[in-house]
Amino acid sequence: MHLNDQQLESVHYISGPCLVLAGAGSGKTRVITEKIIHLIQDCDYKPYNIFAVTFTNKAAKEMKERICASLSSDTIKGLHVSTFHSVGLDILRQEHIYAGLKPNFTLFDEYDQMTVIKEILQELQGTYADKEHLKDECMFWQNKISGYKNDLIGYDEIDTDINDVNQLGAIIYKRYEETLRAINAVDFDDLIYLPVRMFLEHEAVLEKWRQRVRYLLVDEYQDTNASQYQLIKLLVEKRQRFTVVGDDDQSIYSWRGARPQNISLLREDFPDLKVIMLEQNYRSCGRILKCANRLIAQNEHDFVKQLHSQLEFGSKINVIEIPDATLEGKTIVTELLAHHYINRSKYSDYAILYRGNYQSREIQKALQESNIPFRVIGGTSFFSQAEIKDFMSYLRLIANNDDDKAFLRIINIPKREIGPTSLSYLDRFAKKYCISLMDACNHPELINEVKPKTAGIFKSFHDLIENIRKDLNGTDWEKHLSELPERLGYTDWLYQDSGSEKAAEIRLDNVRTLLKWVNNAVTGDDNGFIGDMLINDAINKLCVRELLDRNEEEYDLEEVQLMTLHSSKGLEFPYVFLIGMEEGLLPHETSIEENNVEEERRLAYVGITRAQKELFLMYCKNRKSRKRQETKVEPSRFLLELPEEDLHWPARLKDTRTEEEKKQTMDSLFEQLLNTLK
Questions:
Q1: 458-471 pLDDT, tens digit each
Q2: Angle, to 10 degrees, between the axis of helix 131-150 and the axis of helix 226-236?
Q3: Active site residues
Q4: What number is the average pLDDT over the span 362-390?
Q5: What mean pLDDT, rounded, does the chain reach?
Q6: Is 591 helix (H, G, I), strand (E, B) or coil?
Q7: CA 216 – CA 228 distance, rounded (Å)
Q8: Is 339 left (phi over 0), alpha (psi -120 to 50) or beta?
Q9: Cα 508–509–514 angle (5° rounding)?
């Protein structure tokens, strides 16, 4: 890749502080790696004195690989390319005594933090009768303490006069810190918080590290929080030899403390700051960039960029209106398959982006029915969630008595007082008679191998599954299917296991979605199945889907990529479907209420600029609310902010069909498509 004039200027400017505002797809990683090479080869910087920091191990690894491709391992020996928190950990390991730590301190993860906070809350407020309330409070205070540390606030610096929350927060935060120090531990936020506090209190230690870090490079600078900015400032303030690379238009992590205003703060703290714009995009066609520029221009800016490209202008942006959310998956599959066959493209050329992971559920279902391979990135596949795996095991066992793996997964979910010893006896007994574990539960000789009580539990479980199987193949099967979670005791168990009522409701809703799919399979209401199936056949077909979903992780397949907009940052795809372009979804209703629409616009901007060749923007006219009510929704304001002349928006043309007719048309198209694929 040949460096353009702005990239060359960014690489060669080393005499002072430098801010490189790198637009989407403008080659920022290349600039950082080339600058490191330039510093070592042409500017007599020792690798030991160069630090490059970013936010993910993946990004750090990519930088190292690019540098190693140009310089020998001996030449770059001592070069520090890592994450912010790795730098903080190195500092603490070497200067632990100044941070009040002993050697060999340990790092707490989130589970450890929750355990400490739980003990503090129980000590302060007594034993909780409701388990979910305790977990919710633990999470609240965990986030609160993290926020204090990110803002460089100690427990003795909290303004307790503001409200009761701050008063209690100061107490919990203090006890939390005392516990960590007593056991010589630090948490993840401490890796930045403690070095900054230490530098502020010990000038000699700060000076030592200033001598070590003679040139600092920062990637994804727009994602820095208050403590990370202070760490940067303290290290470079005296020598002022640094380059930070970022894009204020891609700052989308305020919920975890990121402060895009840190870009403007640089100019205040470093008046000689050199600002270089990287505006040539090497990723997307001109029309996509035109739309992205028009959208992001609605935000206020201290620095204004205009992305441009030497690639072709490209076809119009496709805006697709869907009558209601139940057709979302079918519509995407229909559009994607038609595009795939016409363009002879690979499935890996496609990405489906959404605001929240829950939006992917129906999309996954439609892709599976159409035998389109896909992978869920940055989230949990519907079929890989614990409650779905549990219930799939129940369904598999109901459909097949010989499924020993399914039996072993759910024999103690819910708890049935069956221990490992009893299971080992059952296993030996089944092998002795060459029968399944399920059949062994009902064998008359089993009572001679295990205690009578245990034999009774096994027999009861067998009878439960057998009776369910008979009922599901009877005339009232729909009623029995819907009551299955309660009949198995799974509903009560979920509320006991989930930790919070809200989490239990979400998990139970997932199970009911699965059962709805089985119901639709039997009745023929689901076009992914042949109608009038027996219940066992429907379950077995669903099990095949689950098996394929699980095994996809083991093969290098050509797959459609599914991910949230947040997870898509830094990636690119020839063809992108951005779904849920609706008011209340993107921008999200919470952001609208909190007057944070600008970040939501940046999120949409990130999604649009992932596309290289073609972009599909989709929205539903009707979508169920959290209260399960069908509600009409409006197209996202972000759609209306795009240049009309660059959109292909058929729904804006007069269409005399009713919503039901539109739905029937899509159902028919999807069914024809599936028949074609068989």
A1: 999 999 999 998 88
A2: 30
A3: 28-29, 219-220, 250, 610
A4: 81
A5: 84
A6: helix
A7: 13
A8: alpha
A9: 95
